[in-house]
Amino acid sequence: MLTSIVGINWGDEGKGRMVDLLSQEYDIVCRYQGGNNAGHTVINDRGKFVLNLLPSGILRSDVVNVMGNGMVIDLEHLHKEISRLREAGVSITPENLKISDKAVICMPYHVMLDCLEEDRLGDAKYGSTRRGISPVYGDKYMKKCLRMGDLKYPAIYHDTLKHVLEYKNLIIENVYHAASVELAEMTKWLDTYAAEFADYIIDTSLYLDQAAKEGKKIMFEAQLGALRDIDFGIYPFTSSSSTIAAYAPIGAGVPNHKLDQVVGIMKAYSSCVGEGPFTCESFGKEAEELREAGGEYGAATGRPRRVGPFDVVASRYGIRVQGCTEIALTKLDVLSYLEEIPICAQYELNGEIIDEFPYAAILPEAKPVIRKVKGWHCDISKCRTKEELPKEALDYIQLLEEMTGCSIRYVSVGAERDAYIRMY
Questions:
Q1: Average of pLDDT values for 75-92?
Q2: Choice among 20, 40, 101, 311 that is catalytic
Q3: Known catalytic residue: 77?
Q4: Is residue 380 predicted with pLDDT exceeding 90?
Q5: What is the distance between the alpha carbons of residues 375 and 393, in angstroms, rounded to a whole number?
């Protein structure tokens, strides 16, 4: 069984929470794209954890975790993340964490360039997390990067770094008029972490291929959602990698294998961190109440998330491009304060009512067509079976299934590991 867990919307749908839950049924969990520019929040009997780079399966002692070749890895951030987990009693060793030798290293100068470019853009900024993700992916395709496997060969990465820095400093000095980056400083930074991670770096492509052939259950964990995908998202307000399920085997290192299942994660309402068009967005008191009820602040950045009602048009599109076989609906309990629940059922674009997600460049012109349904207006956080949910909650779930065209198998009614309902 090869399963991909992916976001349907703008990210922050609750993927980490669902990966943590479902990973009990898997042998391996693999992150296949992105870096430390998003956070997966997991709450279990050990406490609350925010994971930026590590796969969410790291909190289960019997699960092997893989950081795939499609990722970009900030070594300093990874060191700190591992240290925090170890302090909380989580065991992390080369036996339960394996890092692809082909994953790209996010250097301090990538972070610097990310910040310089966002500052240069001013009001036209893309809403970057300022963690170097766009510059490092750009360098990957310009073939100006170091990879994790290089850390096992100091003579090679010292020489590569020298030539790469000559190129990067031309941009830093002449485009941004900033101080150049010193070779000695970057060499020291790499040397510091090379020894620490050397034993974790392997050919994960070979490891995963053998595991799949042995019948091991593998879960592929995505970061962000379909609408942040570099190709299919709200370009240019996207991430710089492919967040869709079809990329999972490639970003994990097993392009010769096919997915058996795609579980799409979507919230019972909408949220969005960062810039870009967000058609269903709420404002004022309505937005503040929903934001507070859902604790909608970025796990990686702490930024207040933009919020709004469930967006049928965007979700149906996300489900299609992700190729979802089933859905996990998160944060249904958050809507319990509402007597009436709004739903963005369609868009109005240039006087026409539309059901399909439009081209990103004209998306800012779209307006939400809102439909309201009766709420349940009671606490459902203690419900653990379908039969315990009030009729109005069941009606809401069924309506979302009908409008998006995909069955909802899991419903979360709280952040804790056991706070969910299996619908079938």
A1: 95
A2: 40
A3: no
A4: yes
A5: 7
Contact 61, 251 (CB under 8 A): no
Q: Tokens 């304060």 identify what position?
A: 337
How far apart (Å, rounded) are the C-alpha atoms in residues 403 and 417? 28
Beta bridge partners of 40: 51
- CA distances in angstroms from 238 to 33, 125, 187, 241, listed in the order given: 14, 12, 31, 8
Please state, in angstroms and rounded to a whole number, the distance separating the CA atoms of residues 21 and 42: 9
pLDDT (tens digit, 9 = 90+) per residue, 194-232? 999 999 999 999 999 999 999 999 999 998 999 999 999
**Which listed residue (12, 20, 101, 311) is catalytic?**
12
